[in-house]
Design goal:
It is built from 7 helices and no strands. It is mainly α and 162 residues long.
């Protein structure tokens, strides 16, 4: 009659089976987690899907250092709005807003140049009248604005009153 293996031997094999199962689940789980960023990029029709997928594998071999950045990269793009800028229905940035911002920046640069040219102590108030007057002066159209003494108007570079 064959002897039955001791109970401790059966428990050792059971523990070994659980250990192998846990290692396999962790291995495949880590690979699945690293593929999440690629799946997000694919779902959002991200223009850099392949790069995100390759960087996910690189992150897998670099102890997951890149993975949070890949998550942000994959989540930053949306097909309906692109990278987060307001867009019109055709997908282009609203041209009017960009033109208005460029105009405002050029006006402020112009006023800064005038202030340094005139050696004024106080700041020039960025008002539309100031810019129009300064541009008329540059073109040689020295029209005295209302309420400005003629002596100041001769300088042609001055802040508007008020």
């Amino acid at each position: 009659m064959p002897r039955a293996p001791p109970a401790s031997s059966i428990l050792n094999y059971f523990a070994l089976g659980i250990l192998v199962f846990v290692v396999v689940v962790l291995f495949y789980g880590i690979i699945a987690i690293h593929d999440i960023t690629h799946l997000i990029a694919k779902q959002r029709n991200h223009p850099h899907q392949d790069a995100i997928h390759a960087a996910g594998w690189v992150s897998l071999f670099t102890l997951h250092v890149l993975w949070p950045f890949l998550w942000i990269w994959a989540m930053a793009y949306r097909p309906e709005r692109g990278w987060g800028f307001r867009q019109d229905s055709s997908g282009r940035m609203i041209a009017g807003e960009v033109a208005e911002l460029r105009r405002r920046v050029s006006d402020l640069e112009y006023l800064t140049k005038l202030q340094s040219k005139a050696n004024l102590d106080g700041p020039i108030k960025p008002r539309r009248e100031t810019l129009e007057h300064a541009r008329r002066c540059e073109r040689g159209q020295r029209r005295v604005p209302p309420g400005v003494p003629p002596s100041r108007a001769e300088w042609c570079i001055f802040p508007m009153p008020g």
